[in-house]
Fold DUF1761 domain-containing protein.
Amino acid sequence: MGGAAAASAFLLGGLWYGPLFKQAWCREAGVDPDKPNGHPAAIFGGAFLLSLVAAAVFAVFLGPAPALAHAVGAGIAAGLCWVAASFGINYLFAGRSLKLWLIDGGYHTLQFALYGLVLGLWH
């Protein structure tokens, strides 16, 4: 169950930070899209492991048999009000752009909504 939720977010990330927002994200984050910041296996492996941890802990938070609407709503709330809001605080102090916050915060809001969808459907 946690693995399926993590995989959903991993696939979303591939679309979100790939064809949808790669160029804008790289520009706003100051990242060269043609120069990797490490070994791809370590980056993608670490990202999947962290997605798995987040999905597993969110599953514990939701409980053993969450109603679908509650699970998705809780995912949206967690992504937007905990993760994106926390990023927003950091981005304000770091002088990061609103556009970068919208890209990253939007991803994490959808990530947790997907976790809720998968976990709500699983039961």
